[in-house]
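Thought: the user wants the 3D structure for the chain below. I'll pass the sequence to the structure tool as-is, report back what it returns, then summarize two notable features.
Action: structure_tool
Action Input:
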Amino acid sequence: MIEEVSAAYSLRAQEYVERFGSMDAVHPQDRQLVETWARGIEPGSSVIDAGCGPGQWTNFLAELGLLAHGIDLVPEFIECAQRTYPDVPFSAGSLNNLKVPDGSIAAVLAWFSLIHHEPVDIQLPLQEFRRALHPGGTLLVGFFEGPVVEQFAHAVAPAFRWSEDALSDELRAAGFDVATSQVRRSPGERPQAAIVARARNGC
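Observation:
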């Protein structure tokens, strides 16, 4: 399914970039949440923006003093990110294989980048994030929230909403301890949520 998702985003990459490809399109609460999380990471630490899209969040993390690297499966997004933010590293790749040494990363941002993973496959990226993170490293996941895990008709490709409890259980199973979670409900928008988790020692 991931290959089909990548192809669907490739076809609509320019439209996506125009609508969502800058920090101006970010909800103020989301910006504050990510900034608060990022400021809790030691400056100069290596972090991955997993599913970086056009790169605006990767650049945001870099501006906060982190060594941010953006990874995305969609080549058009990576090309756009490299043009727009030439001083920030980006590479094309799968979230299921970050191609970094074990325990080499301080933090991972997965901002709505796991929504197209089918529930039966969600452990693949989560366990890969855990492998890449050093013990105590932090993960911030943004996702669409609902009372049950279910598919919905996303504008680009089929996606899944998760309950906080269900995704928290998956994170624990992958070797994380859940630190905080929150839900944002805005008129006219799907409920959105975020979970901060830390890589468990000894996993």
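Final Answer: Structure generated. The chain has one domain: 2-147+163-185. The chain has a mean pLDDT of 90.
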